[in-house]
Amino acid sequence: MKVLIVGNGGREHALAWKLLQSKKIEQVVCVPGNGGTASMEGCQNLPLSVNDFAGISQFALEKDISLVVVGPEVPLANGITDYLQSQGLMVFGPVKAGAQIEASKAWAKALMQKAGIPTAKAAVFTEAAAAKSYLKAEGVPIVVKADGLAAGKGVTVAQTLEQAENAIDAIFQGQFGSAGNFVVIEECLLGEEVSVLALTDGLTIRPLLPAQDHKRIGEGDTGENTGGMGAYAPAPIATVELMARVQTEVLEKAIAALRTAGIDYRGVLYAGLMVSPDGNFKVLEFNCRFGDPETQVILPLLETPLEDLLLACIQQRLGKMPPIVWQQGSAATVVAASGGYPGDYEKGKIITGIEEAETAGAIVFHAGTNLNTAQQIVTDGGRVLNITATGENFPQAIAQAYASIKHIQFPEVYYRRDIGHRFLKNE
Predict the structure, then answer these.
(1) CA 318, 306, 210 angle in degrees (round to 5)?
(2) CATH code reported for the domain at 192-320
(3) For the whole model, what pTM was predicted?
(4) What are the pLDDT digits (tens) for 283-295?
(5) Coiled coil where (predicted)?
């Protein structure tokens, strides 16, 4: 079968890499893809925008594409699944109505509250004055969120009143585009975050391995939020007992609430949780797609053929599938980023050492790369590469990732040197 993947990041490279391990997959096409997918045997790039629904549809129909997998949240929120399904294509990813669960934090919060899903206390505002008044009454620390899609950067955990007020002003002044029409202000939860990505066909929902992302740019989880600077799986803080509670108190309630709302949700439902020191948890947010960089540490451990799971979701037969099979051990990834990220950064810098990093034992997933006219791999984004490794345990996996990333070279390369620090501290 032929598969088309929409997106150009590390997540999409990892999806293509995993699918191409199967003998059932004849070819993968990435739209628009990156330097890594362009260089991978059995994979080709198609230079279309992720929002060119008509162009993607035309190509998929002409080339007999069996399955379309949508990576990023933006095309899902814009209705790509609805459009491609109307053209007779099989698509993995929720319809536009379901993608609201990520596209509007206010909508998702209302859904959680109505369904009785444990989540942080919150209020939604449409003007700065009212938001700041509420802020002063609640006090700090407090969390200020842009309502819509902001590439993982629309959240401020404010430690001072000034920080919180500046965040409110930035949102309402349009720093995050249409995501700034509403502001969501939440209580600040303490503990450790864990990402639970689950596959669903709208009736049955099955979690993948829990992962822990590292959102902040700086070591020790300091500095600005990013799209993610590294991750590992499975996250030991998500115990068997906790995951059983997440299944009944979060995942199953969410799918039931979506059905009650008349939404047939098929795809990934990703719950971002905060686990408190006493072992309880609350949902920070929902996402409507595979996480990035969580996918890059979950898929290397997956033994069940990925295409079988995706098709079971689309065809609403996930409940008849045998249990998902996982490789023993752990996986870890470290993000090599452009200097200046998550702020301004330059593109087009030549990258060397990828082959050496892979020879040293890593899987290098390309995130923000491209090919220049000389067919050299160059930087093309803020998060450039995901240096991923597996091992019998987490210390082995992260040591391998760091040993391999030393080979990666491009001007002003930056990466955190403490991915998994909470795990190692607990050990």
Answers:
(1) 80
(2) 3.30.470.20
(3) 0.94
(4) 999 999 999 999 9
(5) none
